[in-house]
Amino acid sequence: MKAVVCKKYGAPEVMKIKEVNKPEVKDNDVLIKIKSSTISPVDCAFRKGNPFVSRLFTGLKRPKHIPGDIISGVIEAVGKKVTRFKVGDEVFGHTGLEFGAHSEYLASHEDEAIILKPSEMTFDEAAAVAYSAMTALPFLKDHVKIDKNTHILINGASGAIGTFAIQIAKHFGAKVTAVCGSSNIEMVKDIGADHVVDYTKDDFTTHLNSFDIIFDVVGKSSYSKSKYALKKEGVYLTTAPDFGAVIHMMTLSRLKSKKAKFVATGLRKVPQKIEDLNYLTELYKNGQINSVIDQSFVLDDIIKAHTYVDKGHSKGNVILILDQ
Ligand SMILES: NC(=O)c1ccc[n+]([C@@H]2O[C@H](COP(=O)([O-])OP(=O)(O)OC[C@H]3O[C@@H](n4cnc5c(N)ncnc54)[C@H](OP(=O)(O)O)[C@@H]3O)[C@@H](O)[C@H]2O)c1
Question: Is omega for the bond preceding 51 within 30 degrees of 0, making it cis?
Answer without folding.
Answer: yes
